[in-house]
Design goal:
Order of helices and strands: HHHH
CATH architecture: Orthogonal Bundle
Radius of gyration: 17 Å
Number of strands: 0
CATH topology: Helix Hairpins
Oligomer: single chain
Distance between the termini: 52 Å
Structural class: mainly alpha
Shape: globular
Low-confidence stretches: none
Strand content: under 5%
Mean pLDDT: 95
Amino acid sequence: MRAFFKAFHYAAKGIVHSLRSERNMKFHTIALIFVTIAGLLTGLSITEWMIILILFGGMLSLEMLNTAIERVVDLVTTDHHPLAGQAKDVGSGAVLVFAIISAVIGLIIFLPKWF
């Protein structure tokens, strides 16, 4: 049972590290705060909040996975290697795709409430 709870400690440590050291993670967290405020002001439905929360979790998780990929690649090689660059680019691309889709979904949810 002790190992089970220790895993939560390590996970929290990773989240805190990401929030403190990663510029994009800070950006996504600030966006999360603004979207939350907008959601509170516009009175989102339970279903809309569930969608927003899934997007928050997906975005932050993908950003942390991308950071993990970058760290592992940097650990494995300091040389410029095409595959290392591709691994980093694909990870960044995954984050970008999710961010664009999240923004579109956000517009679908919020625009009708604002206009």
